[in-house]
Amino acid sequence: MLVKMEYQDIGVAGLKTNYDSKVKTHYIDYIVDEYTIDTAIQEVNDGFNKYTVCLQYEGDLQRLFMIDEKPKCPVLVKRELEDVTELSITFLVKMVPDWVRLCIKTPSDFSDMRLVESISKKYPNVHFCGGKLLRLKSCNVGCLRRDEIPKKISDQKFNFYVEGCACPLRCKPVEELEGVDIIIKDKYEHKKVKKEEVKEQIKEEVTSKKVISNLSDLFDGVI
How far apart (Å, rounded) are the C-alpha atoms in residues 142 and 166? Predict the structure, then answer.
């Protein structure tokens, strides 16, 4: 399951539910704004919370143009359209940087797959949800792609015809879940461990280069 929850800088490292004696770990769709997006991106890129699959941005769009460090997961901006046309979508595309994914929520009776295919080819970072849609290879249907979910989803559990939400996993707000257990970890300790791992890698690389250098000197002396 994909759980939507507001981002808070408190060291959330995961989310589980314990319901009917069944413990399940869920993926997270963080809701961020202009004040929290930088910290959230840093957490994602540091690998602090490996269950975060996307950041849903709900803030001033101009702020996105000021971000230097691009995230390793998709940043989504969702907009609902009553009249889905190429002109209206082109207008929205110009409002966000090209690394941000624009998710268009269509009316419930929308089913124009030719328009979806045309827009998907012209603007690869525009995705569609809502309506009655088909998950064709040439069409960006669903806010997230199947390969962006760490857990492998079998064909049997993957619907190629969708109505409404088109995400690869079932989505729910955290408030609607029962038996929620939020896992909190020390962010400073995580950074400390990561720093030590990097130092060890550098040490190994330096040692390796010294060995190669010594071997080169040895062969240079051979006639």
Answer: 4
- The model's pTM is 0.78
pLDDT tens readout for residues 180-201: 888 888 766 655 444 455 445 5
| Per-residue DSSP letter, 94 | T
Residues 6+ apart with CB under 8 A from 120: 126, 128, 138, 139, 140
What's the total number of domains in the chain?
Answer: 2
Strands 171-173 and 180-184, how do they pair?
unpaired
Give Cβ neighbours of residue 3 (< 8 Å, ≥ 6 apart).
15, 26, 27, 28, 29, 171, 172, 173, 174, 177
> Which helix (H) or strand (E) covers residue 105, if one does?
strand 101-105
Do both 179 and 200 map to the same domain? no
Question: Residue 111 is part of which domain span?
Answer: 2-185
Q: How many CA atoms lie within 13 A of 218 on its CB side?
A: 6
Query: Exposed, middle or buried, 216 (CB in 10 Å: 0-12/13-18/19+)?
Result: exposed
